[in-house]
Amino acid sequence: ARVPARADIDADFPLRGFVACDDCGGPLTSCWSTSKTGKKHPYYMCFAKGCPSCRKSIRRDAIEGEFAELLAGLTPAPKLLAVAEHMLRSCWDGRLAQAKEAAALARREVAKLQKQIDQLLDRIVAADSDAVVNAYEKRLARLEREKLILAEKAETSAGPRRPFDEMFELATDFLSNPCKLWETGRIDLRRTVLSLAFARRIRYCRKEGFRTPQTSLPFRVLGGIQQGDCDVAERQGFEPWVPSQAQRFSRPPHSTTLPPLHNSHQHLHLPPATASAGRTD
After folding, report:
1. With 90 as the cut, is the pLDDT of residue 63 above it?
2. Distance of alpha carbon 104 from alpha carbon 96, whole angstroms
């Protein structure tokens, strides 16, 4: 979004409006203070009423020096940046292959529609009924529209307008060394660094310095890979792992072999009525 330029933001105080007070959360403002000797000194301060840090000045050299160190800490390792660029190039090649395949499919569909259009033209020439001719003409107009849409899709999805190196050259340079633009001293480039490197305002405490900033997505991903933040389950599982010990049985295992049958009546436990010949009544 485009916003009107502020007249109170100049090269003397590039962090004005971006760094927030840690006590109240409001943006810090800036001013020049004149000493008894007539020399001017630059300061950042908070003017929010009721804030514990209200009108307590912070030297510009101190806060901007700490910010330069914070920005330098965002610089990823060269090897990590090379790996990220290789991954991005692989994704770029994959998307480019998909775009070429989609364009080829659209061209084949255009050829099929053109064949149908030619067949309809032959039928219109051979038709004698006006109703049939009108129906053919409506279908012909619909096929022509579909053909134009597919032709435009085949042209737009053929590939990027610029190569990979040209598209991502400036982005790669910025990610490899964000301090380079900051050290130029130009207010427009410095404000660009602030908007590209951080997702929101940075809080600053007068006693402890900058709080942990919320960086933008590219720096957050590179920082997570560099620190090895990978949430992977352990081999033992999620629960605390306790090694199981071997169990010893005090009794031998029970045998499943049946004993021999010496007395069928004794082992079968037949009732007397079953063992007898029968009842006379």
Report:
1. yes
2. 12
Sign of CA dihedral 26, 32, 35, 41: positive
- Exposed e or buried b for every residue in 146-162, given b needs 16+ CB within 10 A? ebeebbebbeebbeeee
pTM (2 d.p.): 0.56
| φ/ψ of residue 275, rounded to 5 | -75, -25
What are 87-123's pLDDT values in tens digits? Answer: 888 888 888 888 888 888 888 888 888 888 888 888 8
Quickly count: other Cβ atoms within 10 Å of residue 83's Cβ. Answer: 14
Q: What residues contact 125, with CB distance under 8 A and at least 6 apart?
A: none
What letter would DSSP give residue 52? Answer: T
Contact, 44 vs 29, CB < 8 A?
yes
The pLDDT value recorded for residue 107 is 87
Token pair belonging to 186: 């130009």
